[in-house]
Amino acid sequence: MGKARRQARGISLAGGRWTRLRTLAVAVTVASLMVVTACTGGGGDGGGERSGGSISDGTIVFGADQEPAILNPWLSEGNLQATHTLSLAMLYPLWRVTPDFEYEPLLLDGVPKVSRDPFTVTYKLKEEAAWSDGTPITAQDILFTLQVCRNPDFNIAVREGCSKVDMQRSRIVDDKTFRMVFTQPYAPWKSLFSTAPGSILPAHVLKGKDFNEVWDDEITVFSGPYKLQEWNRGQQLTLVKNENYWGEPKPTIDRIVVRFIEESTSQVQALRGGEIDVLASQAQLDLVQQVQEIEGVTSEAVAGAVWEFFEYNWAVEGLGEDYDFVRKAIAQGIDREALVNELISPMNPDATVMQNLIYLPTQPAYEPYFDRWQYDPDAAEELLRSNGCTRGNDDVYTCDGVRLSFRWGFTAGNELRELQFVIVQEQLSQIGIELKPQAQEAATYFGDTWPAGEQGAWDLFSQAWLNSPDPNPTTEFWECDGSYNYRSYCNEKVTDLIRQSRVEIDPQRRAALLNRANELMAQDLPALPLYQKPVFLAWDSDLQGPEPNPSPWGHLWNVESWEPAG
Fold it and tell me: Cβ contacts of residue 101 below 8 Å, gap of 6+?
């Protein structure tokens, strides 16, 4: 199909397309999918001056878009961002992760000493670090936390780092010093005890108790700047200042009322009406635009740790090992830059196309290996034709009897993904590849459909992944037997490079190994990265201190520094 034909059939990327795309997305969702969804954007009249809030009386009302199921961040049910954000204001791990993805010693008195043969990390706690009841935080608490993490009777969310520790050789050196010996070199050692599933636990309070049952609804002793006062499920949770907080600076805000508001229209109305002083919500086009128009509110959208990609199911005929030319044609037939410009740039003008499956563009080790797949619909069609594919009367190519018609999976009710599907469907139709929507509720897709990829339950799947400062969790996607490898992709060289990276302590050599794996994956195309999703935070301009943190720490990461402006 020539350029003139493509232009005639395409949808212009200029002016008014947002309204056109939103209309198409609704039509796709309701008519084609027969799934009832609730778009999270829209509503409200946009601008207007904000009504006064409650900052002056020492209280901040924090609007959150999700309510945690439990407060215990170590348990599987609590391994959610909603739990992490709240619990990290109350329970500190050894490290804090800053917005620029750096590890900052928190309970630690400086960076730990590291030695080899055997690989050993010696942690020194700050002398002044103490629990809210006055009990010092000691090496015994580190040991107890490690024992909880490794206990098979407890429903722990993340054990991977703890399982690498040699418990026979690790020991308490003194009250404030713990020497941790590993069974082998462990490159992601800083990620251990750095986020919410990693908060240090009080041995003097929890020892001997069933960890599966405690701290679901309340936390009773605290190491962070705030304490839990009460939790009214379904409505709000109240934090109060920890008067015995040992760190600096001391918190100046007396109370933080966390109000749970799921629907974005209600979030905007609450912020405009002064019912909430801070809003932490998923970035959606309508919501960001409306908040930016409210006088007296400061807001910021920054590149987040969540990045969007779609993966190819190699178990499906037409996408597997013998059909590399189809995977390549799809990669060349998608204008990823247009996706960024249409969906992300209106919220974050600095957004770029992502070109790596392990590192984010904002990380120093990032190398753009996937930039080899530039938008080139003519080359995509030529690739199909040169491999014997023929275009039928229905405008869809057939290759060796396989019609290039694929299901595009995405989670229902997600506005950006609905719009993304509409754009990609139109782009690929221009090169003779048909996409059919496969939208399901997130719980169904991630619980049933995605893990059944080897049985052909999906063809192409658009989803997102939350990166941590250390690349190790992401690599599970790409190993032959990785925990999240449901796409039947296996490159032994990639797997070997990933495994080498886990025991390579030198950061530069480790990054080189993982980027070599990225280079091979850019050739194979198990997936195609798209963009970083922005994170969004808005706050009353009379409040100073808030700063978006795209890491798993969340937006309360520096809450002890918040104070009334002036």
Answer: 305, 360, 362, 363, 469, 551
Tabulate helix, strand, coil % of the chain (nearest 5): 30, 25, 45
425: enclosing H helix or E strand: helix 415-429
**Rounded distance between C-alpha atoms, residue 120 and residue 170, angstroms:** 9
Q: Write out the H or E segment, with its range, that includes residue 172.
A: strand 171-174
Q: Tell me the pairing of strands 297-312 and 527-540.
A: antiparallel
CA distances 443 to 412, 439, 446, 477, 532, Å, are 10, 12, 6, 19, 23
Number of neighbouring beta carbons within 10 Å of residue 309: 19
Chunked mean pLDDT (size 10), the chain, 566 residues: 32 38 45 32 49 75 93 91 94 95 96 96 98 98 97 91 95 98 95 93 97 94 98 96 97 96 92 96 88 95 91 97 97 98 93 96 94 98 98 97 97 88 98 97 89 96 89 91 92 97 94 98 98 94 95 94 89
**Taking Cα atoms as reference points, which of 383, 376, 369 lies closest to residue 522?**
369
User: Using H for helix, E for strand and C for coil, what is the string for 113-166?
Assistant: EEECCCCEEEEEECCCCECCCCCECCHHHHHHHHHHHHCCCCCECCCCCHHHEC
Strands 103-105 and 95-97: antiparallel
DSSP tag of 112: P
Distance CA 282, CA 89 (A): 20
What is the spatial distance between Cα 64 and Cα 554, in angstroms, rounded to a whole number?
Answer: 11
State the DSSP H helix or E strand holding residue 59, giving kind and residue range, or none if neither.
strand 59-64
DSSP classification of residue 526: S
pTM of the full structure: 0.80
